[in-house]
Every structure is written in C-alpha cells, then in structure tokens.
Design a protein that fits this description.
- It is elongated and about 65 Å long.
- The chain is mainly alpha-helical.
- It has four helices and no strands.
- It has one domain.
- Helix content is about 65%, strand content about 0%.
- Helix 1 runs antiparallel to helix 2 and helix 2 packs antiparallel against helix 4.
Amino acid sequence: MAANKRLLKKEIHRICGALAGECVLAKLAIPGISREKLNEIIYQLADLQQSALRLVSIDFPGVPSGYNSRKEYIMAPRLPMPSSESISTRVFRRSSRR
C-alpha cells in the first residue's frame, strides 16, 4: 500500500500502464482476438486511471484571495472529502458505466 499520495499516484500509473501493456501484447500475440474490444478496454483503463488520479488529487486555491474569508483559507487543507463514499466505490461505478 502506498505511504503517501505521490506513491499512490505512481502505483496507479504503474498498474494501469501494465494492464494496458498486457492488452497490447495480447493484441499482437494472440491470433483471432478482437482488436476492437481490446482497444475499448485500453480506453477504459485510461479513463479509470484519469478518474482515480482525479480522486486522489485535491485542488484548492493556494492563495487567500481565492476564499471568502481567511478562516476558510486556513481550514481548506483540513476539510473532509465532500462525499462519504469510498474512492474505490466511485472509481468502480465510473468504470462500469461504459
């Protein structure tokens, strides 16, 4: 398990890249396999990677002028995630829509 966000992001990149690489190898090495379906899987992996990275990253304005008050600026990095559902649930639901 990743110790921090940077390592988690690297793991997401590594895993999604390895899976996409396996799909490319399967396309080249296995005769009779559906290239269109594998291309679709590769695109889904790219979407999954992008959405997982988006969920891991937290964006907030880095300057006090981006907030309504100084208190909001001070509390911004410590605010909880907007939803109580887990990241894996949201990633799975997004990837299964296609």
